[in-house]
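Supplementary notes for students who missed Thursday's class. We covered one full example, reproduced here. Read the sequence, then the structure, then the short commentary at the end.
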Amino acid sequence: MKIYSWNINGIRAVVKKGEFQKFMANHQPDIVCFQETKAEQGQAIIDLPGYEEYWNSSQTKKGYSGTAIFTKIKPITVVNDIPDEFAKQASLEADGYGSANHEGRVIAAEFDDYYFVGAYTPNAKDDLTRIPLRQKWDQAMIAYCADLQKKKPVIYCGDMNVAHTEDDLANPKPNRGKKGFTEEERSGFDDWLAAGFFDTFRMFKQGNGFYTWWSHFANSRARNVGWRIDYFLVSTALKDKVQAAEIHADQLGSDHCPISITLTE
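Structure (token representation):
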């Protein structure tokens, strides 16, 4: 069972480039969650007869944010957004940039043996004005997934917009305290681990040089000056079933690359 996540940064553009088709043909994921689709279902010409498609598009801004799950296995249920009880519990409300929980950022599918949750986490903004919302978002998402975890194990994936440790970005010292590498954001990641989730990639590989996002500036991708901000986290109950966790840096089309885990059946 191969499960993928990819911040596609505009599905229509990636389809137009032919990179979406290349990715699906080469990897043939059993389940994949895309983030930053920037589209509604039907706006991109996609012909994948073997897949069910489930989309969560932004309700507030067209062509912005958005997530989607494509799966060969029909889910039992699919739920969009963070449920109100967890959003309210964390006081997750609209801020000066809008309502993060109405931008199609979260999609969850229930399968027989686990929940699969994909998310596109809001970033803190260059001036860090969205740190308060980001902290509330982390609280709400962790509470939501921890509640699901009481029923079945959870596979959580997506663009989390944070480099957890110094090994997760090429230049940690000049970026300390900046968007994506603040103490608040990194602490939010620690809270996922405290809630019983494991960073699957670090189960197999240690050290730096493994990145999932690169700036468009200064030929960063070719020089591998990047950040690891896309993750698969799994519940403790699934840890022993994870056979591999990979970063597919050779797949082009977005400023992010796909990541995957392989589970035993």
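Commentary. The first strand starts at residue 2 and ends at 7. The longest helix spans residues 131-149. If anything here is unclear, bring it to office hours.
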